[in-house]
Write a structure and sequence with these properties.
InterPro entries: LexA-like, LexA/Signal_pep-like_sf, Peptidase_S24_S26A/B/C. It comes from Ensifer adhaerens (Sinorhizobium morelense). Keywords: DNA-binding, Transcription, Transcription regulation. This protein is an alpha+beta fold. The chain folds into two domains: about 70 residues, lambda repressor-like DNA-binding domains (434 Repressor (Amino-terminal Domain), Orthogonal Bundle); about 130 residues, Umud Fragment, subunit A. Strands 2-1-3-4-9-5-6-7-8 form a nine-stranded mixed beta sheet. Strand 6 and strand 7 form a beta hairpin. It is elongated.
Length: about 220
């Protein structure tokens, strides 16, 4: 319901979403910085002051919000506004069988070259630059991962003992394991499938190692 309180609440919520104070939002919109101050929302005699349609139009232009997005924020004070939808970023996808071939990754384990498919994945692309997806093929990772599952890998994420990781060796073998030990000389890995042996490598044998941050199980 449109009211004096709900429309100011919508403006405050829009300011918060852009990490601005009400005066900061007014300044960005080209208005007097005091236009949206709470002290100006009522006159000295207590009468309600409403923002003009011109002010709202300038706010929408300054923030890139649509009128539909603005009206969705018209909630009474104390009622949380609907969350912003999580944007889906397009990230590269390749199967494990193809990942071992040359040309798909750079020296740091980031996706490179041609031949990748793409999928949509909800993520903050700015914070997770280089994130990619690997398609599980076969049953070598059972019971944790099945054929057709998608693993999301972030080569920039810090890695700690106990993390699930993807490792590529200098010989081109790509595997998903659990990191159990890492020293300047040795990397030890626990197999996800108990029927497959655990692995140990000298650091010089590893081309790159990256953390699995999500799986479509």
């Amino acid at each position: 319901m449109l009211s004096h309180g709900t429309i100011w609440h919508a403006i405050d919520t829009l300011a918060e979403r852009h990490q601005l104070s009400p005066s900061g939002l007014a300044r960005r919109a080209g208005l007097d910085p005091t236009s949206f101050n709470k002290s100006k929302r009522r006159s000295a005699d207590g009468r309600e002051r409403w923002p003009s349609t011109e002010s709202i139009a300038k706010v929408l232009g300054a923030t890139g919000a649509t009128m539909d997005q603005f009206t969705s924020l018209l909630q009474p004070e104390g009622v949380p506004a609907p969350s912003e939808p999580v944007a889906a970023a397009t990230i590269p996808l390749i199967g494990f069988a193809q990942a071992g071939a040359g040309g798909y990754f750079d020296d740091g384990g980031f996706p490179a070259g041609q031949g990748w498919d793409v999928i949509d994945f909800p993520t903050d692309a700015e914070k997770r630059s280089g994130t990619y997806a690997l398609g599980v093929q076969g049953d070598s990772m059972l019971p944790l991962y099945r054929d057709g599952d998608i693993l999301i890998v972030d080569p920039s994420a810090p890695i700690r003992r106990g993390d699930r990781v993807v490792v590529k060796t200098q010989e081109g073998e790509v595997m998903a394991k659990v990191l159990t030990r890492q020293t300047p000389r040795v990397i030890e890995l626990l197999s996800l499938n108990p029927e497959h042996p655990n692995r140990s490598f000298e650091t010089s044998q590893i081309e790159w190692i990256a953390r699995i941050i999500w799986a479509s199980q």
